[in-house]
Amino acid sequence: MMLPEAPLLTVTQISTTLKDVVETAFEHVRVKGEVSGVKRAASGHIYFSLKDEQSVLNAICWRGCSVETSRALTDGLEVVCTGHLSTYPGRSNYQMIVQTAEAAGEGALLKLLEERRRKLASEGLFDASRKKKIPFLPEVIGVVTSPTGAVIRDIMHRIRDRFGRQVYLWPVLVQGEGAAQQIAKAIQGFNAIPLEGIETASGHIPRPDVLIVARGGGSLEDLWPFNEEIVVRAAADSQIPLISAVGHETDTTLIDYASDLRAPTPTGAAEKAVPVCAEIKTTLDGLKNRLIDALRRLLLEQSMRIEGLVRGLPNLTDLTLMYAQRLDDKTERLSQAWKTLFEKQKDRFDLAARLLEANSYERTLDKGFALVADNTGRLVTSANEAQKKSQLSLTFKDGRVIVTPNHQKKKSSPSTQGDLFSSQ
Fold it and tell me: What's the pTM value of the predicted model, to 2 decimals?
């Protein structure tokens, strides 16, 4: 039996026909498999394979896929991809054009989470040395969470109850597409506020002293934005101390490792952010009472010590009288000393006066001597000098005589000097 002759087709025609058949028959499929050989091209397209125990299916995710899809396309992760099948005539193979991809079950997400945790931990983002101390009583608190729901209300209510502070909310999505980017941007935005704050049309916005990043409980998928690298890195880089409060007490996300302090719940974050005003007052009252008691004891001890010292001191009145008596004695002795000194000095003065009188020239004249002076009253002490004077004055004990030297006579010796004068 002879078969009818088949029509002659070109390679392109057969490839195009196959492409139409495959795309028509598999225009919407969901495929479960393990991601392998992921390559992210510079164009933004993602090339990878889906495999199971027996087969491999090439797949492509065009540029612009969602964050969740891009996150799910990680080597070794089991995923469920949604899209359609097509062919690539250039290589004569078929492939899946993926529109969305999601992790196939919680186990796959946990595996991805652990791998990411190890990676970020190896970079030191979770080191204890990076942790900053939460201020005891912040003036301003920044909160990153959804503006709706119970979380922000619980935080505000607990802060008001404990110690009222200024609270600034940076509203963000806390799950779904774009949530991670908004959360990271909010953390960075609070940190970008200068220390002195910023002035806006609505007023002054201060820089927070502490940040709270919070959301309520949910599934692992719901909490996933807080496991994204962009959020974890923003928390680790925050210069403002940061408290994470994501989910319930049993929930753990990667932001908890990067934050400076983890709170089990959003309400717990508010409790860790501010102390209880009443407790502080009670503590201060207790410290005040202890201080008063300590001062009272100190004053009592010092008073008893002073009393003991007083008992050891002599009678001040007796001591004063004794020194008064000694002062009177010293005063009297000083007075006597001055009197004695005065009398001694008087005796010395009288003796000196008598000696001066005894040795005065008047007493010398009493012995027969005369005082010779010229007409100016200047003393003449030699015969040679007397010869030169025109007139001399001779003073005796009973009067004075004026004489004129005899210049016509020759000089005589001192023994005949009387021949040299004539009396007037």
Answer: 0.55
